[in-house]
Specification:
Blueprint (H helix, E strand, L loop, with lengths): L1 E4 L2 E4 L6 E3 L13 E10 L2 E10 L8 H16 L4 E10 L2 E10 L2 E12 L4 E12 L8 H6 L2 E3 L2 E2 L6 H11 L1 H22 L17 H4 L2
Antiparallel strand pairs: 1-2, 2-10, 3-4, 4-5, 5-9, 6-7, 7-8, 8-9, 8-11
Length: about 220
């Protein structure tokens, strides 16, 4: 089966499965998050589901991929009504990150795959998740692992966004605190020097030594 949407082309082995209405995927809580591809299929005891979402990367921090994958796993757990979900693998192929997950829901076991990458001139993030669930102990016989391994996500993937100036400075400060403190101290010294230079000077006071000092009664008038 081949699906397309949002600049993505996906291939997934669902031979012998019949299409069913996909369950709604909750995109609340993430500004700009929109589904671009979705589908669901049933084959005997297995249920296969696929969803891809896209979102803009307004502020990017190195290593944020892992946080996004954690969030995607949490969404999938709620989406599939799983009582548990654990990460089974985490790999990177160029700019694309892959993660395997597994979980349980009542009498069923679920296996899943996440694929995260960036597309377009604005480096929008896309996350595709394929999930296969079957009765406990039957996930292998239902072919879940084979179907998930067949998942291919093709797109004009680009590198992760470049962090902004403020994020880069914060990252450098965390990695090299002494250098960062030295830079802060230098900036503080320059700022103090500028303030002192620009401070208005006090008016000069001149004393007239030829003038007689005031008399005592003048001081109390």
């Amino acid at each position: 089966m081949k699906l397309e949407g949002g600049g993505l082309s996906l291939t997934l082995d669902i031979d012998g499965a019949r299409a069913v209405a996909p369950r709604p995927f909750d995109t609340s809580g993430v500004p700009g998050l929109v589904p671009v591809v979705s589908g669901a299929w049933l084959r005997e005891e297995a249920r296969i589901e696929l969803v891809c979402v896209s979102a803009p990367t307004r502020v990017w921090v190195p290593g944020l991929e892992q946080t996004l994958l954690d969030a995607a796993s949490a969404k999938v757990r709620a989406f599939a009504e799983l009582t548990s979900l654990v990460v089974t693998s985490n790999t990177r192929e160029g700019p694309v990150v892959h993660r395997g997950v597994s979980g349980e829901s009542g009498e069923r076991t679920a296996l899943g795959r996440h694929v995260l990458g960036f597309v377009g001139p604005a480096s929008d993030v896309v996350i595709c998740t394929a999930l296969c669930s079957a009765p406990k102990g039957a996930a292998t016989s239902a072919g879940c692992e084979t179907r998930l391994d067949s998942l291919r996500v093709e797109a004009a993937f680009v590198a992760a966004p470049t962090p902004g100036w403020l994020v880069r400075r914060a990252t450098e400060a965390a990695e090299h605190p002494r250098v960062a403190l030295g830079g802060v101290a230098a900036v503080a010294l320059v700022a103090c020097a500028v303030l002192l230079f620009r401070r208005p000077r006090a008016e000069e006071i001149t004393l007239d030594s030829s003038r007689a000092p005031p008399r005592e009664e003048e001081l109390f008038e």
